[in-house]
């Protein structure tokens, strides 16, 4: 496994759990050392226990040496990050290219390099040509693509029981090897249903990931666009979403209206996809994704506008309590978190913002050191003019609005995830406001 971040660490542990001799490689010495000693550098339910189990079997090890990895593996999974470029919407491929440049010269024996990272279409073909130049094994060091669809919080389950497997291959040999690797999922011994497999060419496999994340982002922005219309029309987006969900052609998942999507994948992936489509001369085909992005970002400013309105027209000098910092509950990940983006916007208008999150405070502090952080909901809410519910941690649904009401300066709550019980809050004399719902 080349790269032991979120994706690579999960995949390494799961491959070991499937019985393979597995070596995780990371250029970050500290990360490799932490994993070697059974510590995960991020939060993921069930993964740390599994990591320790697999280390104990001796099947799983970590290294920082490309030479060792090249000598070790028949199959190399490329799991490095592809963040958004600092200077534009496209993907920054420096880690992907760097890994191939570092590994290639050591590849003296037949092997398969399997890309899992999300990359712009055409990358796999380019890497294939480059690897043939770099590797002493020449054409025997091949490239395949096997996109990853795992969700944070469900990473182990999504890796060991994925909805589907996608193989992008350029030869029968590559397909054969991938089938061997994934045999435990494709031909389960325990009588379970085999995981559906789609075999395609390299470019199609790369595009599947871009298409899947674009579709999911579009679904969320669609319901958030309906929320905007509901706000203007005095209608309610929640029963509207429920009514849509009953149509099996639409379905209810990814149809929860709120402050929109964030995280390390959806926002950057739709931007990288549109940038790549423009390069290919088909920017118009995915032009709507610009609007998906805009609708999504507009929900963040809608929360700020509402907070300003509830603060009497000016946020300057107000105290605003923010519940949630992670981009979604169950995670300590704050990458492109809508909650922190809103907190930052409000602070820029001169308000004092106090944030509480059950798990993501350390990460949030690193990214937004100027925000204030509180260890509990009560501490965050003390003296606040407006309370913002921005990440739907289950414990926030259990807050007692009566008790909390005694500590705040103003009983205004914005439920930007639509998961609190309005009558609960209203019964305690709070002004409960939500996105896409009548006030
Ligand atoms: C996503 C994809 O689901 C996964 O398949 C892909 O491989 C990586 O990106 P992840 O980033 O872990 O996974 O989060 P996900 O659970 O998909 O949520 C993404 C964002 O959308 C979160 O900010 C979430 O709060 C938001 N969301 C999700 C909504 O606002 N409404 C919804 O109905 C669903």
TrEMBL record:
InterPro entries for this protein: 6-PGluconate_DH-like_C_sf, NAD(P)-bd_dom_sf, UDP-Glc/GDP-Man, UDP-Glc/GDP-Man_DH_C, UDP-Glc/GDP-Man_DH_C_sf, UDP-Glc/GDP-Man_DH_dimer, UDP-Glc/GDP-Man_DH_N, UDPglc_DH_bac
Catalytic activity: UDP-alpha-D-glucose + 2 NAD(+) + H2O = UDP-alpha-D-glucuronate + 2 NADH + 3 H(+)
EC identifiers of the protein: 1.1.1.22
Top-level class of the enzyme under EC nomenclature: oxidoreductase
Residue ranges of every copy of the UDP-glucose/GDP-mannose dehydrogenase C-terminal domain listed in the record: 321-422
Annotated Pfam families: UDPG_MGDP_dh, UDPG_MGDP_dh_C, UDPG_MGDP_dh_N
The organism's place on the tree of life at top rank: Bacteria
SUPFAM superfamilies from the UniProt entry: 6-phosphogluconate dehydrogenase C-terminal domain-like, NAD(P)-binding Rossmann-fold domains, UDP-glucose/GDP-mannose dehydrogenase C-terminal domain
Keywords: NAD, Oxidoreductase
Pathway: Nucleotide-sugar biosynthesis; UDP-alpha-D-glucuronate biosynthesis; UDP-alpha-D-glucuronate from UDP-alpha-D-glucose: step 1/1
Family designation: Belongs to the UDP-glucose/GDP-mannose dehydrogenase family.
Protein name (Swiss-Prot/TrEMBL): UDP-glucose 6-dehydrogenase
Organism this protein belongs to: Streptomyces ortus
